[in-house]
Amino acid sequence: MTQAEREQENGKEREKEREKEKDKDQQRGVKRPIVPASIPESLQEQIQTNFVVVIHPGSRTLRIGRATDTLPVSVPHVIARKHKQSGQPKHEDPWLLRDGLNKPESNEQRQNGLKMVEQAIWSKKMSTGLRRTPVSAEQARSYNRQVRPAVLDSSSRLKWTNTGQQPQYLVGDEAVYVSPSDGYDVHWPLVRGHLNVHPGPGGSLTAVLADLEAIWGHVINKQLEIPLKDLKYYRCILLVPDIYNRQHIKEMQMVFIRVSVPHAAIIVHQESVCATFGSGLSSACVVDVGDQKTSLCCVEDGVSHRNSRLCLSYGGADVTRTFFWLLQRAGFPYRECQLSNRLDCQLLQQLKELFCHLNQDISGLQDHEFRTRFPEAPALLYHIRLGDEKLQAPMGLFYPTTFGIVGQKMTSLPYRSQGDPEDPHDEHYLLGTQSKQDQSSKCSADRKPLSRPAGAVDSELTGPGGSAEPSDPHRLSSGGGGAGGSQGEMELGPAQAECLMGPGEAEEQQPSALLSRKSAIMGQFESKALGLDKAILHSIDCCASDETKRKMYSSILVVGGGLMFHGAQEFLLHRIINKMPPSFRRLVDNVEVITRPKDMDPWLISWKGGAVLACLDTSQEMWIHQREWQRFGVRMLRERAAFVW
């Protein structure tokens, strides 16, 4: 046999051995990593960042741009679709209204929250050392009721969107300014960070995804000036919430891949981690106050701590709605204002950004003015006198009962995956096979000591280092056993469980009692609306080590546009220091709240972090290509995502 024949024979033998190992792994349930060798070498070349599009979809604002852009394009994340039939009933997704506001207990809860806010305002001294003198709404109401608007111009020079060519849909500001009489339905495809799936018109998953595809495609084509036929040369980085719906994220990433060719590629990453990239911080407790939700997460060296994730179902829109309620108590002179009118909602949001603050040194009644400009109406000038209303509204973030939301889930924690039919080898499968392997290894370990003296067996079973029994509550609570993998169970780490149940309580419970106790506590916890300061303390307290907690206290990063009030940084810092555990006051050298890192606007930071991610060498291994997705499906997200899918 020649040398060449021997090498060929050896190669065949090695191939057979690899096939045998692969079969054994499949029988044992071992996942083999997806080898990216199927990607053509041309796709593994150095990526040019000017051909990477970063998409940060928010509930109210879409931020999108090339990774090389200084600022992203920001447009209202809304679409108006033309009625298919004349005389069709009009549907419009609400802007500031939400479920749970018209309950019998709503007004009482709102009043109780306002009393707590007033007490907090009075208890905190001003920088002069004096207490703030409260100002009642009656003092401003008597003046505001007498105010009549002054006409600035007979025409506001603001027009409704021109629909003369009967476009099938309008996007962004064009959708906001579409006339109610033109026969268009207005849809916001995202609500509180999730796809806006509802039983009404345009609320199916297919319709919502079609809205996203139309909005993103329109902005990329018109605003970024990238023809859709040229998207085959571009890649995408998609920012997603820290607590996400797996099915929704899977569908959202397909929105970009679907409009491209097989060379398209995408990276999916979490908003909190990208916020640390954008701010240049290695570790931070990221507090993202958006328009409709507030999410918190502790990030350390580019890794999001799962147990620290928390999502609160309120944000800047709830502050705007509360401010409108306080304005009405003070005799708001623009009496035609309605929360069901999207242009009035836009005006109220502008007034909140203009007047509201968190600076307690500003006290007493003050006179202000504002203008209204609506299509087919004159431009008007209003004068208004306001007192504590400007401070009370943003303080609702710390006293959420002021929002008057009843019967809604106000706090969300990360759940264990419910499973995916497209991904049979998910974590449930791994937990099940791991449990069987543990049992088989335990049985074999029990058989081995049979030849040993009885004392050795007893010492192994009863000693401190003995193996845990299947009923061990530690295994059950940490999700290591089969019972821990049941669908719908909240995944709590030791720190998270201890935060909710109290130190040592979990150890005293039997497994069945532990699960029922945990479920009851989780239900109570999620029904409560934590204030922003308490949520930050809870998130940090769920970190595993004191060293990590110390890092988080010294770097609290506030991003998003929901807390952009004058004095917010000092106000939040004061509340954190006063409420943090006394033991950490001695350990933490400096508690710091960061609201404008590198002098950037807070709403920009997460998007900027996505742009930074495109430049990192480590991101080369995170790209998911269309042909890979078609071959492996959702498994690609588990293999390539930088977070635990």
UniProtKB/TrEMBL annotation:
Superkingdom of origin organism: Eukaryota
InterPro entries: Actin (IPR004000), ATPase_NBD (IPR043129)
Protein name stated in the entry: Actin-related protein 8
Species the sequence originates in: Gadus morhua (Atlantic cod)
Compositional bias annotation for Polar residues: 432-443
Biased composition regions of type Basic and acidic residues, renumbered to the chain: 1-28
Similarity remark: Belongs to the actin family.
Comp. bias (Gly residues): 478-487
Span list, region Disordered: 1-35, 414-490
